[in-house]
Amino acid sequence: MPSLKADSEQIEICADLLENGSLVVFPTETVYGLGADATNGQSVAAIYAAKQRPEFNPLICHVADLDAAMAIGDFNTSALQLAKAFWPGPLTLVVPRHKDCPVVPLASAGLDTLAIRVPAHPIAQALLRAFGKPIVAPSANISGQLSPTNCQHVLKSFPDLPVLDGGTTQVGLESTIIGCLEAGVIWLRAGGLSRQDIEQVISDPLIEIEADSDSEPRLAPGRLARHYAPNARLELNCKTIPPENLLLAFGAIDFSHPSALINLSPSEDLQEAAANLFSALHQLDGLAQAGQTISVMPIPNSGLGEAINDRLTRAANS
Ligand code: TXA
Ligand code: MG
Q1: 36 CB under 6 A from ligand 1?
Q2: Would you say 63 and 159 are in contact if contact means Cβ atoms under 8 Å apart?
Q3: pLDDT tens across 145-175, in order?
Q4: Going by DSSP bridges, is the β-strand pair 32-37/24-27 parallel, antiparallel, or unpaired?
């Protein structure tokens, strides 16, 4: 599919595509983003499938303005200072999720924090306003490739997706990511906004998170991002299920199970299973009595199954 001229008609068409669950690529002032409706689990799962990354990385929610951001996240004083100083612009803030936040858990990989950004690019702004809901968007490249700063880059990874053409992006680097959490103001990723700019606005010192052993140590705030873990014990690849265990099922079930059960996808659809994964874990964990185990049925390791199994393995080992 050729790139689309980003006039108001195409922007409306792209907003409708998002509404219908499809993915749309759009320019921001940093890099092009692979966008999906942040409130639609299947669409968010489709992003992970398209990126071909074998794990679920939490995604950035894009919104049109600070009001829209405050409807999905809780902003403390530092967050407000930074948002007012630098939005719209190349800054992402990680804040606690708002209690009524409609963004699906898969978008933030089950975390209770959310990365939020108000992009300045006029096409991104127009799309957000036409769509009227948060759009999650990682950089529009297949995992392991460079972030795209023009349509040609995007089309190398995604030749078949609609791409709103905004020419070459101005900043060319991803957004700077800052956590504004109870622990303080945390420097998570270097990007289009400098450390000095940030430090001029906040009254607290910036907290450094040590680089860990991730492949992108500086870029991936893995430490913070990997906190989600259920309290209940998880047993993976269970073929026989003790009746007293809670059950995270996958596929058709031809037996009755006396304890609580959630089926990730009765039809063995891995995209549906991914969309349901984190909310199912949260729900079962909430139901689990002290010492009760969650049995997880085997899930194939192909496609999105790899990321699902990666998450379940981490959850089981935590
Ligand atoms: O400039 C940008 O930020 C671009 C444009 C499209 O907005 N987006 C982008 O997204 O770079 P992505 O998915 O490539 O990088 C998002 C980063 C990841 O490193 C992820 O770990 C971090 O944001 N992140 C997202 N949610 C988080 C959270 N709740 N806590 C900590 N880190 C988070
Ligand atoms: Mg990226």
Answers
A1: no
A2: no
A3: 888 999 999 999 999 999 999 999 999 889 9
A4: antiparallel
How far apart, in Å, do the first and last CA atoms of the chain sit? 44
Report the nearest-CA residue for atom 13 of ligand 1: 138
User: If DSSP states are collapsed to H, E and C, what string results for the chain?
Assistant: CCCEECCHHHHHHHHHHHHCCCCEEEECCCCEEEEEECCCHHHHHHHHHHHCCCCCCCCEEECCCHHHHHCCECCCHHHHHHHHHHCCCCEEEEEEECCCCCCCHHHHCCCCEEEEECCCCHHHHHHHHHHCCCEECCECCCCCCCCCCCHHHHHHHCCCCCEEECCCCCCCCCCEEEEEECCEEEEEECCCCCHHHHHHHCCCCEEECCCCCCCCCCCCCHHHHCCCCCCCEEECCCCCCCCCCEEEECCCCCCCCCCCEEECCCCCCHHHHHHHHHHHHHHHHHHCCCCCEEEECCCCCCCCHHHHHHHHHHHHHC
Q: Are 85 and 118 in contact (CB under 8 A)?
A: no
Which residue among 23, 30, 57 has the greatest number of ligand 1 atoms within 8 angstroms of its CB, and so is best to mutate?
57
Sign of CA dihedral 211, 213, 215, 220: negative
pLDDT digits (tens, 9 = 90+) for 86-126: 999 999 999 999 999 999 999 999 999 999 999 999 999 99
Q: What does residue 215 show for φ and ψ, rounded to 5 degrees?
A: -65, -30
Which residues are close to ligand 2, an ion, with C-beta < 5 A?
Answer: 139
Task: List the structure tokens of 126.
Answer: 């127009």
Q: Which ligand is nearest to the CA of 138?
A: 1
